[in-house]
Design a protein that fits this description.
Layout (H helix, E strand, L loop, with lengths): L1 H8 L9 H18 L15 H9 L3 H6 L8
């Protein structure tokens, strides 16, 4: 699966029981794809904080489901 799918669609699927190892492999794969596209090396300090404030606001709302997904209100807990 990991070899054939990657050649066909550019991605791959692997089953690795160790969660730390699968994250390591996934990030290495993403880094290799970024390098092939001549994108800058990912800087984890540059991204990830811009939406945190808004997400905390949404999660603090009583009707989180409707706020986050636009669905029907969540039943009273």
């Amino acid at each position: 699966m990991s070899e054939g799918w990657e050649k066909l669609v550019g991605g791959k699927l692997e089953f690795v029981p160790d969660p730390v190892e699968i994250v390591r492999r996934s990030l290495a794969h993403i880094d290799a794809k970024r390098a092939a596209l001549k994108l800058p090396v990912y800087d984890p300090n540059k991204y990830g904080k811009s939406g945190d404030k808004r997400m905390r606001e949404l999660l603090s709302l009583k009707d989180r489901q409707a706020a986050l997904y636009g669905g029907l209100p969540v039943a009273a807990e």
